[in-house]
Design goal:
This protein has 402 residues and is α/β, with parallel strands linked by helices. Helices cover 23% and strands 26% of the residues. The chain contains 10 helices and 24 strands. The strands form 6 sheets. Strands 8, 11, 12, 13, 14, 15, 16, 17 and 18 form a 9-stranded parallel beta sheet that branches. The termini are far apart.
Length: 402
């Protein structure tokens, strides 16, 4: 049994404290009011929060997940805790089916042996996307979600080596078979997110009726908000059935729009990085599912045509960015912990509560990680020699009123 006291602790969406967290056997067993004098670890500053949960990340630290080796997976798992992340859902973007399947097989072989941040399953962002909103996805591999193709994806839920591995699929519901695909996937227990889509608001609502519950990187690669046709973001912000993924690097979505999203969908915003191999790395050339992407001095990755391709964001920086524009600290932390965990049905993650996995992060007063625990084990400690992300341009802008 280990106990940690802290002056401020995120509990049930509020910053309270002082408080003491008791953990045993890898889970939280008690949360006590006040700083217990006999606590094993007494933190004298900062904030103790649940470990951060990133449900959309294509890679980081030089690794592209779709082609990652066993050593690559372990490297990312070991280094993500330096950003406060203790659980992540790797994302595979559009690629030929054999590439996706081989990537899933490699992931299935290593997920159970990761020592640092834990993988939650794989998010397939494609290939069932609209050719009208491809972003950097290769249009050659975009296909309609026929029952046969969706069935091929669902086979990974029962196949040996990849059983249960696909936990989320992003698709465009307006494609032929799109609404039926939402129903087919949701019935099988896969979370369905709408993205890279030209859907009308009515089609977004129809997808929600069949079980879609998320929107992938709201405002990006989707029919925009219009005062007569709400489009994808308008429908998602209005409909309480949706959790809205937000890339808070302040480039994908401007600070003013981040604030509007926050106000319109309070408690339904999940901060995501959409990170690629460039995250945590210096400017240079990186790969995203076979696509060459360039990370410039502004910290934003782009392909040869100048189209933004994912991000170089880390989730702790997303937290700092939104607090930096004046948003409430507790709600921002919740958007990086409980909300994304709940969006995947993981009530054991993203919270400090009895029975939850003892994934914790101690932030300093500027929300930079000082120490991270996974299942009660210290997996990162600042200044201990453990690697931290490379310095790259800080993306937060001057504080603005919320």
């Amino acid at each position: 049994m280990t106990s940690i006291s802290a002056p401020r602790v995120l509990i049930e969406g509020r910053l309270v404290g002082p408080a003491t967290v008791v953990m045993s056997g890898g889970v939280v067993t008690e949360v006590l009011d006040g700083a217990a004098p006999e606590a094993d670890i007494a933190l004298d500053s900062g904030v103790l929060a649940p470990g951060l949960v990133d449900i959309q990340t294509n890679g980081s630290f030089g690794v592209d997940f779709i082609t990652a080796t066993v050593e690559d997976w372990r490297l990312v798992s070991d280094r993500l805790p330096s950003t406060g992340v203790t659980a992540f859902q790797p994302t595979y973007i559009t690629a030929p089916l054999d590439v996706l399947l081989s990537g899933l097989e490699r992931a299935g072989a290593v997920f159970g042996s990761l020592a640092g941040a834990q993988a939650m399953g794989v998010h397939l962002e494609g290939p069932f996307l609209s050719p009208k909103k491809p972003g950097v996805h290769d249009p050659r591999y975009l296909v309609a979600p026929t029952p046969e193709r969706v069935g091929a994806v669902l086979e990974t839920l029962t196949a040996e080596g990849t059983r249960g591995l696909v936990t989320m699929v992003t698709l465009a519901p307006e494609l032929d078979g799109g609404v039926e695909a939402v129903r087919q996937l949701a019935t099988a227990g896969v979370r369905v997110s709408l993205g890279h889509t030209d859907a009308l608001a009515a089609q977004v609502r129809a997808a929600a009726d069949e079980g879609a519950t998320l929107v992938t990187h709201i405002f990006n690669a989707q029919r925009p908000l219009n005062h007569r046709e709400p489009g994808v973001p308008g429908a998602a912000l209005y409909d309480p059935r949706f959790t809205c993924g937000l890339i808070a690097d302040l480039h994908h979505v401007a600070p003013e729009i981040c604030t509007l999203v926050w106000r319109a969908s309070a408690g339904r915003v999940a901060l995501v990085t959409d990170a690629i191999a460039a995250a945590g790395m210096p400017p240079g050339e990186y790969e995203l599912s076979g696509i060459t992407v360039y990370l410039g001095e502004d910290g934003v990755p782009r392909d040869a045509a100048g189209v933004i391709g994912g991000s170089a964001l880390t989730l702790d920086r997303a937290v700092r960015n939104l607090i930096g524009i004046g948003l409430d600290e507790a709600s921002v932390l919740s958007a990086a912990t409980r909300v994304p965990a709940d969006a995947l049905g993981r009530s054991d993650l993203g919270r400090i509560a009895p029975g939850a996995r003892a994934d914790l992060v101690w932030f300093d007063d500027e929300y930079r990680p000082l120490r991270t625990w996974v299942a009660g084990r210290t997996v990162f400690e600042a200044g201990s020699g453990a690697p931290a992300p490379a310095d790259s341009p800080e993306l937060a802008r001057e504080r603005q009123p919320a």
